[in-house]
Amino acid sequence: MQEVSRRTVMGMAGVSAAMLGAGFPDFAEAASGKEGYTLPALPYSLNDLEPHLDPLTLKLHHDKHHAGYVKGLNNTLAALEKARQQGSHEHVRKLLRALSFHGSGHVLHTIYFSSLSPDPEKPKGALARAIKDQYDGVETLESELLAAARTVAGSGWAALVYEPLGKKLLVLQIEKHENQVFMGTIPILAVDVWEHAYYLKYQNRRGKYLEAVKKLLDWKEAGKRFDKARGYTP
Ligand code: MN
Prior knowledge:
The chain is 52% helix and 10% strand. By secondary structure, it is mostly helical. The radius of gyration is 18 Å and the shape is globular. The site of manganese (II) ion (MN) has 7 residues, from helix 3.
């Protein structure tokens, strides 16, 4: 799909460029290619997050669920392109709903998998300073983030985002993949609390899963995202 038509689609949907990856070279590159969006590889091997997250959960989550959102996003964009060529706008509501759902699902899963590591690091540099200013420190922020994750009603996420107008960090609680999103914000770190993220190992014990996530939570990529996000002004 051409760059121009992709922009048109995003404009029609009211999907913010930030949510679909402005400022994230990997996404932008994938999005502008003829092949559409591609599934990023996991940044570690399947056994690396043991004993906190098991390899089967990780494999299904990445190879089936995340892959499904990438496929859904590409299929939706293709369907929108076809509808545009045919001058048919009958299915717009359904297609734009799917675009937002799958697109946000792809972005959030990409961030989630890179928010975990077998060798987690705490925030450094500008991100560490911003967290100190706003939250007193990373422990307080992690507690707030995980409380937001624990209390999601149904399937959803907790995310740390950068809000560029006020130049501040915010913790958001997201239902499904995109409900309660604050438009224009850029996700920095994300915690998945859909049951597929933990049910095989933890069953209904979301709190136990989140204790495990806390041990794996890695701020390396978050720091890079924050540094890029600070250059963005709506
Ligand atoms: Mn998931």
